TrEMBL record, chain A:
Domain FAD-binding PCMH-type stretches: 1-167
Keyword Oxidoreductase applies: yes
SUPFAM superfamilies: CO dehydrogenase flavoprotein C-terminal domain-like, FAD-binding/transporter-associated domain-like
A GO molecular function held by the record: FAD binding
Name of protein: Xanthine dehydrogenase family protein subunit M
A matching Pfam family: FAD_binding_5
Source organism per UniProt: Psychromarinibacter sediminicola
Keyword Flavoprotein: yes
Listed PROSITE patterns: FAD_PCMH (PS51387)
Lineage: Bacteria, Pseudomonadati, Pseudomonadota, Alphaproteobacteria, Rhodobacterales
Record's keyword terms, sorted: FAD, Flavoprotein, Oxidoreductase
UniProtKB/TrEMBL annotation, chain B:
Name used for this protein in its record: Xanthine dehydrogenase family protein molybdopterin-binding subunit
InterPro entries tied to this protein: Ald_Oxase/Xan_DH_a/b, Ald_Oxase/Xan_DH_a/b_sf, Ald_Oxase/xanthine_DH-like, AldOxase/xan_DH_MoCoBD1, AldOxase/xan_DH_MoCoBD2, AldOxase/xan_DH_Mopterin-bd_sf
SUPFAM superfamilies attached to this UniProt entry: CO dehydrogenase molybdoprotein N-domain-like (SSF54665), Molybdenum cofactor-binding domain (SSF56003)
Keyword Phosphoprotein in record: no
Key words of the record: Molybdenum, Oxidoreductase
Aldehyde oxidase/xanthine dehydrogenase a/b hammerhead domain residues: 21-139
Keyword check for Iron: no
Length: 262, 786
């Protein structure tokens, strides 16, 4: 790890001005960034921690919308979203291990947009809004491919808003080593539509499986997708699974999520 | 009623108190005043010619003491290989030089090119980034079979090819074996891979070199399983330091699994640099470096053929194995695919003719050497897989086929040069089947089917050769070392004892188990016995711990030394009690004279030995301390049977191990709890190999599984609650304790049982799958089903 300066602002405004410094980068829980820095693969000059910004923490529900502060840890989401949005709470409860869940934040996960992160699938499937210090970005406009989002330099996720579905469930098929999703599928049944967010599988990062959404919107059951196939084109192939295998798992995990949705 | 002390008691591991409370003293806990730190600049290409190396910027970087390169080691020896294998033609193997730092070429990703020594570790690492290396990349030699083609690029230009040796065993049996195949009723053939593994001990390697100018003595603190071996290899072959000027200390070591047997470049470097700089020099491996520099395990590609008669009796066995050596010959690399592998191909069976061919190959990968089991897991895996396949092909129950061929009379001389002293393979198989409720399988399979899962079961019957080894035998086979063990038993004046052993504990529990033996022999409390190990300055020459040899060889040396101590103590007691030494008995810590009421306590005799006022000084010397060297007359042969039951999810290919029963015959058992723990650990590693672990390079020689993000280690929730039993005991006939060793069994016996079970599940699910190469990841199992 190279030397860097650590800034711990107490407010979003302070954080935004600190992020104006050259080579400054926000630090959520650091579960990806810190190991990357230890390997000397990243070398920010300034890290702006969101840890002490109380205004960016917590889970609240208003009507059909769940609002989660960008600096809220996975552990907190797992507890506080449990009654209103069990699908999201269940997802959060299975990210990493307790140490990761007590440090890692939802804002950090979404901003990093690792192709095998869990939260992006939930945000796409639930639909909702990423709120930053500067603007609001619709979920469908936020993810722009592996490790790429609509966020501008120095822009900070302050709040994430989810449309709470009637029913939802997240099924993660774990990569054996990292236990990140080899394929993760979040199915959300809303009053007017079904949305399916898929993570881990595609070289373009998280995506919506629209054919399944259509089939499930008219018949919300695992049988509804039995006739569909997922193309292996553009799927990730690596040590742990071929594109064909990932494509197959997308369908299997979608079916299981539909069956388990509550 | 279980014993509460001495041999057979589950005494709690005394060392665990310090391990579990953070009070262990590992090599990294040692810091010497004035120590500097080294960072190694390692090659990021697998194969290349070094055309230029500019270290000038690094040398003037802050805190840097000196930058070393291969040129600094030109007058220094290379890392030696400890076992010379002779090929089928009677010629010695090809043995390339293995420099401490690369000289002219790099041969694997991670090969050290330069070493920066600085005041702090961060300064050393920063400075290393300023070294400019001009490497002309060469085609990487990766696939073993391609490596042996005449036009293949060579890993070592000065060798005639990438072939280290082409070994045949037993060469004289080759024609007869081939002839038996011609006549066979049935031949089963299987091609398989025993994949490369990374040992991954919890504690990464650490080395600290220290030099005392006033006495011209060097000390190396290192994470080693055998400090005396390191002293011998490094002193005599690399740095030219006589053993009386070199001390090697291996304090608490956090696991080794074989990977800490070998002499590594970093050890020689730190010792060399400490003398050159007159400063202690410390190196601590990162986990990433461990993946690129710790010797790796297994990596065999095998074709095995089994010839049977119409009743399923084994007629002959023939194998051809390609064994990956990596880029250089690690210390015992050459012995693993040969003498530790070919000699086990008989397994538990009466196969009259066996021929094993092994081609050892150089590739641009990290060197490969012994890893828990070392050669024996590779032998067991192929044999137990081909037997299972033969059973299916011939329609014979796999349990019955094994029983039909078991060796049942002992001693049994195999056609592969070893003689089993004792065993009862039916007994362990019966016990394993009983523990696993073999007969209740169908009901469980029906329950699994209700959940949409396919249940399968597999067995394995294994044998291993442990307690290595008779020195004269291994000397004939090419070992460049003796394989005895030593112990000094020092009795103090007030009766307590210190045992200095050449064995080394890096998790095994010697500090608890060895005193149990002494306590039984003398009849005193275990707490009166202390074990000292791991320091060449205060233990006699020893060969260290590997091959499940500590209690069988090291324990036997201790027994021999203790017998000498007791014999002398009896003479002293006889003098004090005015009796003849042959009439003196020792029991429960009391010497007594047979047929009289005379007795004297152990402590009174030991006091007399050091305060010899009333003492037979004209017959014996004062003091009570004896040393023994024990050289075994044969290997020991632990054996057993394992049963594995799995559930396979046909939609995803995911395998869940539902139950695992292990019945082992370890001969006599000193501490059942420690033995159970050893079996649990071995099973976890074996199941890890079968299900999860795999070291994978791409075609350019880059390691793809270079961290825990991609190298899957077994975790607690990957494993079932094991059923473990060692009540079947046929004691070893040739060592004083009747013990056989238990350290590797679990890792040897579990992979074939698990793979057999998964193949069984798929067959029951209607898939015509006869083999899947490990690890049986969900993706591989699913692909096999398609």
């Amino acid at each position: 790890m190279y030397d860097f300066e650590l800034v711990k602002p107490k407010s979003v405004d302070e954080a935004v001005s600190a992020l104006a410094a050259e080579d400054a980068q926000p630090l959520g829980g650091g579960q990806t960034l810190i190991p990357t820095m230890k390997q000397r693969l990243a070398a920010p000059a300034v890290l702006v921690s969101t840890h002490d910004i109380d205004g960016m923490k917590g889970v609240s529900t208003d009507g059909g919308v769940m609002t989660v502060g960008g600096a809220t840890t996975h552990g907190t989401v797992a507890k506080e979203a449990a009654s209103a949005f069990p699908g999201l709470a269940g997802l959060a409860a299975k990210i990493g291990d307790p140490a990761v869940r007590n440090r890692g934040t939802i804002g950090g996960s979404l901003a990093n947009n690792d192709p095998a992160a869990c939260y992006p699938a939930a945000l796409l499937a639930a639909g909702g809004t990423v709120v930053t210090n500067a603007r609001e970005i619709a979920a469908d406009d936020f993810f722009e491919g592996m490790f790429t989002t609509a966020l501008e330099e120095g822009e900070l996720i302050t709040v994430v808003k989810f449309n709470i579905p009637e029913k939802s469930n997240y099924q993660k098929f774990e990569q054996p080593a990292s236990r990140f999703p080899l394929v993760g599928v979040f199915v959300a049944k809303h009053s007017d539509e079904v949305r399916v967010g898929v993570t881990g599988a595609s070289e373009d990062g998280v995506f919506r499986w629209t054919e399944a959404e259509q089939a499930l919107s008219s018949n919300f059951s695992a049988e509804a997708i039995s006739g569909l196939t997922v193309s292996a084109d553009g799927m990730i192939g690596d040590l742990h699974g071929t594109p064909d295998y990932r494509a197959h798992l997308v369908k299997v995990m979608t079916g299981r999520a539909v069956s388990a949705a509550e | 009623m279980p014993k509460d002390h001495g041999i057979g008691a589950s005494s709690k591991r005394r060392e665990d108190v310090r391990f579990l409370t953070g009070k262990g003293r590992y090599t990294d806990d040692i810091n010497i005043r004035g120590q500097a730190y080294v960072h190694f600049l390692r090659s990021d290409v697998a194969h290349g010619k070094i055309n230029g190396l500019d270290t000038s910027a690094a040398e003037s970087a802050p805190g840097v003491l000196r930058v070393f390169t291969g040129a600094d080691f030109e007058g220094v020896g290379g890392l030696p290989c400890g076992w010379q294998v002779t090929d089928r033609e009677g010629n010695p193997m090809q043995e390339p030089a293995h420099p401490v730092l690369a000289q002219g070429k790099v041969r694997h990703v991670g090969d050290p090119i330069a070493a920066v020594v600085a005041e702090t570790y961060e300064q050393a690492r920063d400075a290393a980034e300023q070294i400019t290396v001009d490497i002309e990349e060469l085609p990487a030699v990766m696939d073993m079979k391609a490596a042996l083609k005449p036009d293949a690029p060579k890993v070592h230009e000065d060798l005639t090819s990438n072939l280290c040796y082409d070994w045949g065993f037993v060469e004289e049996n080759r024609e007869a074996t081939n002839a038996a195949f011609e006549k066979a009723h049935h031949v089963t053939t299987l091609e398989l891979v025993n994949q490369r593994l990374v040992a991954n001990p919890m504690e990464p390697r650490v080395a600290i070199g220290d030099y005392a100018a006033h006495s011209d003595e060097s000390t190396l603190y290192t994470t080693s399983q055998n400090p005396h071996v390191i002293r011998l290899l490094m002193g005599a072959f690399v740095l030219g330091i006589p053993e009386h000027k070199l001390r090697v200390v291996a304090p608490d070591v956090g696991g080794g699994f074989g990977s800490k047997i070998f002499h590594y470049a970093e050890e020689a470097f730190c010792t060399f640099a400490a003398k050159a700089l007159k400063r202690p020099v410390k190196w601590v491996s990162s986990r990433s470096e461990a993946f690129l520099s710790d010797a790796q395990g297994r990596d065999h590609v095998t074709r095995i053929e089994l010839a049977l008669d119409a009743e399923g009796h084994f007629q002959a066995l023939r194998t051809e194995t390609y064994a990956n050596m990596g880029a250089y010959l690690s210390t015992f690399s050459t012995s693993v695919p040969t003498w530790l592998h070919g000699t086990l191909m008989a397994g538990n069976y009466r196969t009259p003719l066996i021929y094993v061919n092994v081609k050892a190959v150089f590739t641009n990968t990290v060197p490969v050497d012994a890893y828990r089991g070392a050669g024996r897991p590779e032998a067991t895996f192929q044999l137990e897989r081909v037997i299972d396949k033969a059973a299916r092909e011939m329609g014979i129950d796999p349990v019955e086929l094994r029983r039909r061929n078991f060796v049942t009379e002992f001693p049994y001389a195999t056609p592969v040069a070893v003689e089993y002293d004792t065993g009862d393979y039916n007994a362990t198989l019966d016990r394993a089947l009983e523990m696993a409720d073999w007969d209740g399988f169908e009901a469980r399979a029906a329950e699994s089917a209700k959940k949409g899962l396919w249940r399968g079961r597999g067995i394995n019957s294994y044998i291993e050769a442990c307690g290595i080894a008779p020195s004269q035998l291994v000397g004939q086979l090419g070992a460049r070392a003796g394989l005895y063990e030593s112990a000094t038993v020092r009795v103090n004046a007030t009766g307590g004892l210190v045992v200095m052993t050449g064995s080394h504990s890096h998790g095994q529990g010697h500090e608890t188990a060895f005193p149990q033996v002494i306590a039984d022999m003398i009849g005193i409390d275990e707490s009166q016995v202390e074990i000292v190990h791991g320091d060449t300055a205060n233990t006699p020459m020893g060969m260290g711990t590997y091959g499940s040899r500590s209690i069988a060889v090291g324990g036997s040396a201790m027994v021999r030394a203790a017998e000498k101590v007791i014999a002398k103590a009896k003479k002293i007691a006889a003098h004090l009690m005015e009796a003849a030494p042959e009439d003196v008995e020792l029991k429960d810590g009391q010497f007594s004279v047979a047929g009289t009421d005379k007795s004297i306590a152990w402590g009174d005799v030991t006091l007399a030995a050091y305060v010899p006022h009333n003492y037979p000084l004209d017959e014996i010397e004062p003091g009570l301390e004896e040393t023994a060297f024990y050289d075994p007359s044969n290997f020991t042969y632990p054996a057993g049977a394992y049963v594995c039951e799995v559930e396979v999810d046909p939609e995803t290919g995911k395998v869940r191990v539902d139950r695992f029963a292990a019945a082992d015959d370890f001969g006599n058992v000193v501490n059942p709890m420690i033995v159970e723990g050893q079996v649990h650990g071995g099973l976890a590693q074996g199941i890890g190999q079968a299900l999860l672990e795999g070291c994978t390079y791409d075609e350019t020689g880059q390691l793809l599984s270079a961290s825990y993000m991609d190298y899957a280690m077994p975790r607690a929730d990957d494993l079932p609650s094991f059923q473990v039993d060692h009540s079947c005991q046929t004691p070893c006939t040739h060592n004083p304790l009747g013990v056989k060793g238990c350290g590797e069994a679990g890792a040897i016996g579990s992979p074939p049982a698990l793979v057999n079970a998964v193949v069984d599940a798929l067959q029951r699910g209607g898939k015509d799958v006869t083999h899947i190469d490990m690890p049986l990841s969900p993706a591989r199992v699913w692909a096999a089903m398609q």
